[in-house]
């Protein structure tokens, strides 16, 4: 088995930990914010997990082992949620949310931009770049509209 598979599992566990933090902290804000955050993370996670599964297969894991290892990384999300709930201040959820949500959203933005911007800069076809920028702006607009409702 290649080391890239194990590195991917470690990165996926950390990623799931931050997702658990974000979901739990969002539910501490309100049900609406919690459900919106959960849906956003699910939309992100489904293709992400499929890609991670393919990385594990390429690294030499068989299908069953790759599936078990992917499932075990989900424990990182549960640990993140438990950490957010246990970190709740006796003064209320406000102090917990005040550092968890900016931390996780900043991490998500950083990762997204580190993955997207280099691809945009290397794109040779201006139409493809314009489409990607329009889709990025559409995603931001959807987030703003959901926040306003």
TrEMBL record:
Keyword Zinc: yes
Bilayer-crossing regions: 69-87, 99-117, 129-148
Keywords: Ion transport, Membrane, Transmembrane, Transmembrane helix, Transport, Zinc, Zinc transport
Gene Ontology BP term (one): intracellular zinc ion homeostasis
Membrane-protein topology: Multi-pass membrane protein
Main location as per UniProt: membrane
Pfam families in the cross-refs: Zip
Location of this chain's protein in the cell: Membrane
GO cellular component assignments: membrane
InterPro entries recorded: ZIP
Catalytic activity: Zn(2+)(in) = Zn(2+)(out)
Gene Ontology molecular function: zinc ion transmembrane transporter activity
Sequence similarity: Belongs to the ZIP transporter (TC 2.A.5) family.
Name this protein carries in UniProt: Zinc transporter ZIP13
Gene name, Swiss-Prot/TrEMBL: Slc39a13
């Amino acid at each position: 088995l290649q080391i890239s598979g194990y590195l991917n599992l470690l990165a996926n566990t950390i990623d799931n930990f931050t997702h658990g933090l974000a979901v739990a902290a969002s539910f501490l804000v309100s049900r609406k914010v919690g459900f919106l955050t959960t849906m956003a993370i699910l939309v992100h996670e489904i293709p992400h997990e499929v890609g991670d599964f393919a990385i594990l297969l390429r690294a030499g894991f068989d299908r069953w082992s790759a599936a078990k290892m992917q499932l075990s990384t989900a424990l990182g999300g549960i640990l993140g949620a438990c950490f957010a709930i246990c970190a709740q201040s006796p003064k209320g959820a406000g102090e917990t949310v005040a550092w968890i949500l900016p931390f996780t959203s900043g991490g998500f933005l950083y990762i997204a931009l580190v993955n997207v911007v280099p691809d945009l800069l290397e794109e040779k076809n201006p139409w493809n770049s314009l489409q990607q920028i329009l889709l990025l702006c559409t995603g931001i607009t959807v987030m703003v509209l959901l926040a306003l409702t």
